[in-house]
C-alpha cells in the first residue's frame, strides 16, 4: 500500500467509535461506485473561481465528453454546455440562475433544453450550504426519451384528428357530425310535434350507429399502426454497461474491491490516500442530491445512499420496497422493476410515501444494480383512452332510437346535453394535444361525487339500474387529476358490466386506512377462470391485446385505459375478480387519499 491512509471518520465528518466504521465504509464505496457509473453527468462549479472543480458520471454522454479527451480539460460550465450543444441564450440563463441561487436552494429546468444531435436535457442545480455555499452541484439528464414519448403522443393525436375528419361514405366526418350533434339536440329540445321528434331521432339514431362503427374502426386501426406504449420512454442506451476505472483491476467481488482500498489509521479503519478525494466528492454530491440514490453492489446487499432513508441497508428487494415506503398497491410493480435491474436497464413509475416517483436504473458490476428515484412529472397523455372515452360518450346518444315523443325528450334531455357537452370538451382537448403534445389543462379538481355521477350516466338511459352506496363524507373528497379521465374510467367499468348482461350494478365507495376504495359489483354473466387469467395477464403487462374484448364492437383497450388512469393517481390500483360466489364480476379501485383530504368521520 502506497501513500498515507485517512480515517473514514474524518472523511464523513462523524465521530465513530473504533470498530463501528464498516457501515460508513460501505456507504462511501457504494457512493463512489454509483456516482462513477451514473448515466447522468455530475459536476460541481466553484462560483468564486468560476471554474468546475469536480465532474463524474456521464456514461451515456461519452461521445460528447470525448471532446475533452485529447489533452483538453473541462474548466468551465460554459465550455461544457457548449460541448453539449446548448444555445448561447440558454447558457447565459443557466449561468445567471446559478449565481442567483441561495444556499440550499434548488433550480430545475422546467422546459427541456435543446442540445446537440437533436437531444434534449434537463438540469438540476443545487447550491450547497455553508461552509461550501460557494459551490453549486449540477446534474445533467438526457430526457430525449421523454421528449420523444411526448412527440409520439402528438403524432398519434394528429393521426386521430385526421381520421376523425375523414368523410364517411362521402359525407361528414366523425368530428364534424359530433360538433353539429349538439345543435341538432338543441333543435330536438324545442320541438313539440311528436311526428317531427320521431323523424329527427330516427335519423340521428341511424347516424349514431354509423359514427360509432367508424370510431371502433379508428381505435382498432390506431392499435395496429401505433403499437408502442406511446407515453412510455424508450431507453436510448439499452446496452450500456458502465464501469468505473477501479474496476479495471483484476477484481471479481465487491468485498475484494473494498479490502484493496481499506487501511488502518491509529487503530481506526481508513482508506488509502489516493481514494480520499474521489470518495469525499462522491459522498458530498450524493448527500446533497435531490434524487435518491439506491445501489446493490452485489446480490444480497442494498444501500440507500441519501434522502429520508439515508444509511439504511437491506438484504432483499422486498425488504427495500417496504423500508423506503413503497405504497401497498405499488409493491409488485416496484419489486418487478428492481428485480429486472439485475439483467437490463429499466425505467418505471410507482408510488412512494404519497408521491409518484420515476425510477431510472441499470445493471452494475459484480452482479449488482443501481438506480435513481426522482419526483415524477409529465406522466404522459393516454390518447387511446381519450378516444375510447369519446366513443363511449357517443354510445350515450344511442338512446335516441327509443325517443318517440315530447315526454321521452323531457326525460333524457339533461343526460343528452351533458353527453354532447362532454364530447365537445374532449374533442377540444384532443385538438390541443395534436397541436402541442400536451393537454390544454393538465389537471383539475374532481370529487368522488363527480366520478360516481359518471357511473350513473353510464347506465342505460330510462333505467334505474346503478345503486350508489357511499360512506359519509367520501363523495366530497377532491383529487387533482387529468380532466375527465376518472369519470371515463368509472363510466367504462359500469358500461362494461351492462355489455356483459348485467341488469344491476352496485357501487360502494369508502375509505380504508389512507386509501379511497371504490368497488363495482354486477350481476352479469361473470368471468370464466381462463378469461380472468387472461385479463390479469394483459393488465399486468400493460400491452394492448385485441382478444381482451369478446364483443364485435369492442376494441380491447377499455380496461387498459381504465388501469392507466387509475395508476396516474398516487398508489393507484385496479383489480378485477369474479363476483361473490363466482356470480357476476367485481372491479376494485384503490388510490391514496390526497394529503390534505378530510377524513370522513
Which labels suit this protein?
601 residues, alpha+beta, Beta-Lactamase, Heat Shock Protein 90, 6-stranded antiparallel beta sheet, 18 helices
Mean pLDDT: 83
Largest sheet: 6 strands, antiparallel
The counted number of beta strands is 22
- Residue stretches low in confidence (pLDDT < 50, at least 5 long) are 241-251
Computed over alpha carbons, the radius of gyration is: 29 Å
Structural class call reads: alpha+beta
- The total domain count is 3
Helix fraction?
A: 40-55%
Query: Beta fraction of the residues?
Result: 15-25%
The number of helices is 18
What is the assembly state of the chains in this entry? single chain
Shape: elongated
Distance between the termini: 68 Å
Structural commentary:
By secondary structure, the chain is an alpha+beta fold. It has three domains: 40-142, Beta-Lactamase (2-Layer Sandwich); 147-236 and 290-441, no CATH class; 443-601, Histidine kinase-like ATPase, C-terminal domain (Heat Shock Protein 90, 2-Layer Sandwich), CATH 3.30.565.10. Helix content is 41%, strand content 20%. It contains 18 helices and 22 strands. The longest helix has 32 residues, at 194-225. The chain starts with 5 loop residues before the first strand and ends in a 9-residue tail after the last strand.
At a glance:
With 601 residues, the chain is an alpha+beta fold.
Q: Secondary-structure blueprint of this entry?
A:
Elements: E1 6-7, H1 8-12, H2 22-37, E2 41-46, E3 51-57, H3 62-65, H4 77-83, H5 88-100, E4 106-108, E5 113-114, E6 120-127, E7 135-142, H6 144-165, H7 174-190, H8 194-225, H9 254-259, E8 262-265, E9 268-271, H10 273-288, E10 292-298, E11 301-304, E12 313-314, H11 317-323, H12 331-340, E13 346-352, E14 355-363, E15 369-375, H13 383-396, H14 406-436, E16 444-447, H15 448-458, E17 466-470, E18 478-481, H16 485-499, E19 505-512, E20 515-522, H17 529-541, H18 558-567, E21 573-578, E22 585-592
Parallel strand pairs: 17-19
Antiparallel strand pairs: 1-9, 2-3, 2-7, 4-6, 5-6, 6-7, 8-9, 10-11, 10-15, 11-12, 13-14, 14-15, 16-18, 19-20, 20-22, 21-22
Helix pairs in contact: 2-10, 4-5, 6-14, 7-8, 7-14, 8-13, 11-12, 13-14, 13-16, 13-18, 15-16, 16-18
Amino acid at each position: 500500500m502506497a501513500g498515507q491512509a485517512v480515517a473514514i471518520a474524518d472523511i464523513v465528518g462523524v465521530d465513530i467509535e473504533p470498530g463501528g466504521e464498516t457501515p460508513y465504509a460501505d456507504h462511501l464505496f457504494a457512493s463512489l461506485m454509483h456516482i462513477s457509473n451514473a448515466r447522468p453527468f455530475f459536476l460541481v462549479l466553484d462560483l468564486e473561481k468560476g471554474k468546475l472543480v469536480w465532474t463524474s458520471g456521464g456514461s451515456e454522454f461519452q461521445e460528447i465528453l470525448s471532446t475533452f479527451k485529447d489533452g483538453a480539460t473541462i474548466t468551465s460550465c460554459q465550455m461544457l454546455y457548449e460541448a453539449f450543444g446548448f444555445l448561447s441564450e440558454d447558457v447565459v440563463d443557466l449561468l445567471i440562475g446559478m449565481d442567483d441561487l441561495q444556499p440550499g436552494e434548488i433550480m430545475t429546468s422546467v422546459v427541456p433544453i435543446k442540445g446537440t444531435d437533436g437531444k434534449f436535457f434537463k438540469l438540476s442545480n443545487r447550491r450547497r450550504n455553508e461552509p461550501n455555499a460557494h459551490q453549486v452541484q449540477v446534474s445533467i439528464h438526457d430526457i430525449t426519451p421523454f421528449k420523444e414519448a411526448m412527440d409520439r403522443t402528438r403524432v398519434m393525436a394528429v393521426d386521430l384528428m385526421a381520421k376523425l375528419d375523414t368523410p364517411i361514405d362521402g359525407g361528414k366526418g366523425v368530428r364534424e357530425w359530433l360538433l353539429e350533434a349538439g345543435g341538432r339536440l338543441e333543435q330536438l329540445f324545442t320541438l313539440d310535434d311528436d311526428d317531427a321528434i320521431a323523424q329527427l331521432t330516427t335519423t340521428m339514431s341511424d347516424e349514431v350507429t354509423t359514427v360509432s362503427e367508424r370510431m371502433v374502426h379508428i381505435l382498432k386501426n390506431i392499435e395496429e399502426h401505433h403499437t408502442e406504449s406511446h407515453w412510455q420512454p424508450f431507453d436510448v442506451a439499452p446496452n450500456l454497461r458502465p464501469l468505473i476505472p477501479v474496476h479495471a483491476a483484476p477484481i471479481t467481488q465487491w468485498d475484494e474491491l473494498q479490502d484493496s482500498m481499506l487501511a488502518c489509521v491509529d487503530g481506526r479503519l481508513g482508506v488509502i490516500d489516493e481514494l480520499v478525494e474521489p470518495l469525499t466528492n462522491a459522498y458530498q454530491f450524493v448527500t446533497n442530491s435531490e434524487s435518491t440514490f439506491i445501489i446493490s453492489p452485489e446480490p444480497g446487499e442494498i444501500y440507500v445512499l441519501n434522502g429520508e432513508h439515508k444509511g439504511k441497508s437491506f438484504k432483499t428487494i422486498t425488504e427495500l420496497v417496504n423500508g423506503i415506503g413503497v405504497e401497498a398497491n405499488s409493491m409488485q410493480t416496484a419489486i418487478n422493476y428492481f428485480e429486472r435491474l439485475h439483467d437490463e436497464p429499466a425505467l418505471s413509475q410507482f408510488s412512494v410515501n404519497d408521491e409518484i416517483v420515476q425510477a431510472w436504473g441499470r445493471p452494475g458490476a459484480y452482479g449488482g444494480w443501481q438506480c435513481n428515484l426522482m419526483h415524477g412529472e409529465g406522466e404522459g397523455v393516454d390518447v387511446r383512452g381519450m378516444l375510447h372515452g369519446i366513443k363511449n360518450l357517443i354510445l350515450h346518444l344511442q338512446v335516441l332510437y327509443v325517443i318517440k315523443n315530447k315526454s321521452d325528450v323531457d326525460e333524457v334531455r339533461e343526460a343528452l346535453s351533458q353527453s354532447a357537452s362532454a364530447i365537445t370538451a374532449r374533442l377540444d382537448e384532443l385538438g390541443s394535444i395534436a397541436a402541442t403534445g400536451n393537454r390544454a389543462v393538465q389537471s383539475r379538481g374532481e370529487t368522488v361525487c363527480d366520478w360516481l355521477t359518471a357511473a350513473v350516466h353510464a347506465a342505460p338511459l330510462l333505467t334505474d339500474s346503478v345503486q350508489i352506496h357511499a360512506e359519509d363524507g367520501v363523495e366530497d373528497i377532491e383529487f387533482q387529476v387529468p380532466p375527465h379521465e376518472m369519470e371515463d374510467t368509472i363510466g367504462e367499468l359500469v358500461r362494461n358490466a351492462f355489455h356483459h348482461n348485467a341488469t344491476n350494478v352496485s357501487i360502494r365507495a369508502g375509505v380504508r386506512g389512507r386509501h379511497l376504495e371504490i368497488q363495482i359489483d354486477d350481476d352479469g354473466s361473470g368471468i370464466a377462470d381462463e378469461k380472468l387469467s387472461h385479463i390479469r395477464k394483459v393488465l399486468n403487462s400493460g400491452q394492448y391485446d385485441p382478444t381482451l374484448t369478446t364483443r364485435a364492437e369492442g376494441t380491447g383497450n377499455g380496461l387498459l385505459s381504465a388501469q392507466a388512469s387509475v395508476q396516474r393517481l398516487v398508489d393507484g390500483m385496479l383489480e378485477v375478480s369474479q363476483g361473490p360466489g363466482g356470480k357476476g364480476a367485481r372491479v376494485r379501485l384503490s388510490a391514496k387519499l390526497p394529503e390534505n383530504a378530510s377524513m370522513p368521520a
